[in-house]
TrEMBL record, chains A, B, C, D:
Biological process terms in GO annotation: glutamate biosynthetic process; L-glutamine catabolic process
One GO molecular-function entry: glutaminase activity
Record-given protein name: Glutaminase
Entry keyword annotation includes Cell division: no
């Protein structure tokens, strides 16, 4: 398997020349576009790696399914889904339009920014600090990595340039989908996006979702089976921004990407995969990362459909 | 299993009181709203039935994935997907707006009307008659039922009231996504929607898709493995109109509904399911039919995520 | 005044180098982009001309306010405005989107294609021929020119390439805003767009509107005062496509443009102006023609605000 | 004239029973719905009044054309119109959608909230206090009323409930149409909306605009001729929210309404009119106020078209 991974990385290295590294904040712009790495953890807890699998990067939108899981554990589901929908939107991740044109004005789903701001607002805690701490602990447990933390340079930049997210949040507040202090909710949101991880962390979270929420090593249940299924379902229908449909056709694996260049994939009962390649296509997905997953899906017969 | 099906039908019969039977043409309005039926064909070609499983109804939008399969067999894929997208739209099935606001103006996917008109236009044949004949033959082979035919009353009514589809088709022609005579393409489209089937037919098509395109009985390959996967993927991301996301969460099975009241579901490697219940929710899906599938998914552990 | 007109034409000739002649049909593409002409008829029926004032071109969208006048004379107003709105849309003339997103689904106003198709459908007549004849007679009387007729080459091309208008018309029919045979209504619509006129014709129609509907020469009332005011009001709020607001700011005169390169302006109580310059900006307005009107408005103090 | 005004008020009093007083903040909800008042100041500086002409109310959106005038005096025009457009939008005053779907993302015009926030941001001053002071002084001079001030209860409520405006402002900032501190810009915006005036104030501002910017009493030039024309043009094309087109057809006078119940009208060279009637139609315009203006336009022949 390690050979296979090495081969897949080598063959797809050429795709790191296409697309652009995210540049809306300086910290992301500094990523090395030629980096490409992968880690797979299988259902025997075997770990396979290749390329730049241990380069650190920020999790960005890959935090969305994880925070959704937390929101679903912290709140009753009816209440969560009264504030965020379950439908793919067909629009870019940062689109505002449907908040106005939708009948309900509700964010379409928790994988676009507007919906993710809602789920972040639902995390329980007596203070912002407590919420942040609980969130970090949840990520650490899911990834089995206590050293996971926030990249504060990224966080500060996100906060500084986050006016589009601010616009969404105020609109959500105006329409009753979030309560409380907008800047505080956004602070937590920008922090969750700035959590620093590597491919191994993503693979571990992926295998734990694949095993329906039971940790692959400790056998401890971290997420209920139902929630773990929901998360994977959202990853299929909305996980790759407005290219989710094409990804499902070409690759056929539940996956979530982030503009930091990461992709987390979770093949039910089989494996978790973390991929890293910071050069993105126009929709915000790692170009080489998707190519790697497409090859793997073919070679290892991972397509769930 | 027959007992289980009977029980599930009985328990969900009450939901036939909710929603409305489609009424845009008289033939659909005449459906009996209390009807509820199911057929399952499993991977041993065992057939199980309950309720009004042999009531005939028109296939309507359930024809879309099947005609897509045909279009993908009749044309090279790049050409097909240059004319219709792969993304869920988040809009109602008969929405026109995205044909104007999308960057590409391309129909979002082949499961909404605009996209289905494109795939219909791609069916090969030297004449309208030949196309119609080829289409009917394909449905008959997939359902293993030579008696399948068109309900001409429904077809005539569809044609008479089809001005919204006409509007879409002319827009598609204007933008280069369909070629040839619009009325002829629509004629074929209205015919495909008016094909009459029952739950057994749908279950058979479903199991054949579940077996990756190989007929469950004859073992003959009817559709390639890749195309069968594509079809099921589209059924997950866009099969239940703009309620596909919620259905994937609640039920987790590739499925396609039609306003005639049918739902065809295909559980990879396991079974095909045909359900019939003509009272629809606002988005056009059978209310009781969805409830039946939700129960079955739970009881038989069919969720693929 | 003739000297002034000559000077204004000379000074603005340079702007004929900008923009593009309409090219969606061959007949329009053949227009000579360097042409620039003007005719003014004042409230003493004095006629002033300069440049290519007697070049023939097709009236295109300038027919819209005239056919609206006819629709308002043929029908009661409440009925007309139950089928077409009074509001500028902010969208391009051939936009379809608002027909779906508007609460009423009604075309926003009679100056965009969708709205103009509605007003055309309201012209009375026992046959298409009679409607065509009545329409031509109305244009001839308003322009005091019995030789006005249809350019059949343009008409045929419009009809051949008119699929976008066909899409709109079927949507309008679906939503109950037009009745009767769509192709027949469009036939009349394509004919009205293909009426051939020159700057003198436009100036004469303009002065007759400026004199509240009384013909400047015969003193015969051709249009009621109220209708003449309505027409001029629509010309201000929607006459220059989605650049009407800017034109009102810069020029401040009721005016209507067409993609044939013409602009008809009507200064209440003062004068009618016809301008011709076939090179258009992206919104479909004559670039040099607008410059000429801006200069004239300044020099002759024609701004009504 | 006073008799005519009394008669018009009496005849239209019945329309105060229709529609709703604005209720999004408690202060507006407390307005007396049966109030109806008018003031006319003519080009001889004669003042005519009837009904509740001296009831105080907040200016709300009627501040928009005035602040636009100020922005056009404080900045070069090219710079102003690089940040806000000149086109009617066809959308409600608080719509956000076009900020995303427009090619330029620029607010359509300065009469909708998004555009007005831009013009407010362009008011010069070394501090928020100085800007507020300059703004108040400008309103006072235009209305020739030094007692004009801000209703701080309304201001506080606007600020508290202004999350939709906040959303717009952050989107505008994100897209580069406003600079500086969003909360400070909104503070000024909420203050301008909370300026308290009566019908006499509005009539005075109206006549000064009608006289092309020269104060009717002091003969002092307050606004340039060009700016005064621009303001009236925007009042025609966008002054009555998304009912501007219909108002232009029915009444034909430059006018601006506010959700406080006021309407300011300006008949070029003839008169300024202030009307007050707090019960609004769904688009935010005073129902009885519009009826009064329609009657007056008919009786006094004020239609400019």
């Amino acid at each position: 398997m390690n050979n296979l991974l090495k081969q897949v990385i080598d063959e797809n290295k050429k795709y790191t020349n296409y697309g652009q590294v995210a540049s809306y904040i300086p910290e992301l712009k500094n990523a090395k576009r030629s980096d490409l790495g992968i880690c797979i953890i299988d259902n025997n807890n075997k770990i396979y790696t290749a390329g730049n699998y241990n380069t650190k990067f920020t999790i960005q939108s890959i935090s969305k399914p994880i925070v959704l899981a937390m929101a679903l554990m912290d709140n009753d589901w009816t209440s969560v889904f009264s504030k965020v929908g379950m439908e793919p939107s067909g629009d870019p991740f940062n689109s505002i339009m449907k908040l106005e044109t939708n009948d309900t004005k509700k964010p379409s789903n928790p994988m676009i920014n507007a919906g993710a701001i809602v789920t972040t607002s639902l995390i329980k805690g007596n203070s912002l600090e407590e919420k942040e701490e609980r969130m970090l602990q949840f990520f650490r447990r899911l990834a089995n990595n206590d050293s996971i933390g926030i990249n504060y340079e990224v966080y500060k930049s996100e906060k500084l340039t986050g006016d589009r997210n601010r616009a969404m949040a105020y609109l959500l507040k105006n329409d009753g989908f979030i309560n409380g202090d907008v800047e505080e909710i956004l602070d937590l949101y920008f922090k969750q996006c700035s959590i620093e991880i590597d491919c191994v962390d993503l693979a571990r979270i992926g295998i734990n979702l694949a095993m329906y929420g039971v940790d692959i090593e400790s056998k401890e249940r971290l997420i209920s089976e139902k929630v773990s299924r929901m998360i994977k379902t959202f990853m299929v229908t909305c996980g790759m921004y407005d290219a989710s449909g094409e990804f499902a056709i070409r690759v056929g694996i539940p996956a979530k990407s982030g503009v930091g260049g990461g992709v987390m994939a979770s093949v039910p009962e089989k494996m978790g995969i973390g991929v890293y390649g910071p050069a993105l296509d126009k929709k915000g997905n790692s170009i080489a990362g998707i190519k790697v997953l497409e090859d793997l899906s073919e070679k290892l017969e991972l397509n769930i459909f």
